[in-house]
Amino acid sequence: MNQTKTFKALSDPNRLTIMQLVSETEVCANDLLEKLNITQPTLSHHMKVLYEAGLILVRHDGKWAHYSINYDAVDEVYRYLGAFRKN
User: What is the pLDDT of residues 31-54, one digit of tens each?
Assistant: First the structure.
């Protein structure tokens, strides 16, 4: 895990909302656009940042992109942060 890239990806409120939405179920880009007040290019940018940080997975079905959470990456974030706990 690249901690800087991961936490930068999670530092944006829209990306946190996207993470919440894709954590519930696989979501199509169009569905995300309907739920967020952002443009398609802005959504593409956010998805690229989340994908490059390894936080989401992408499945292509024709011209459509479907996004889901990468639970392995999220577990790694929890383990990383857990190392800061005081016992």
Answer: 999 999 899 999 999 999 999 999
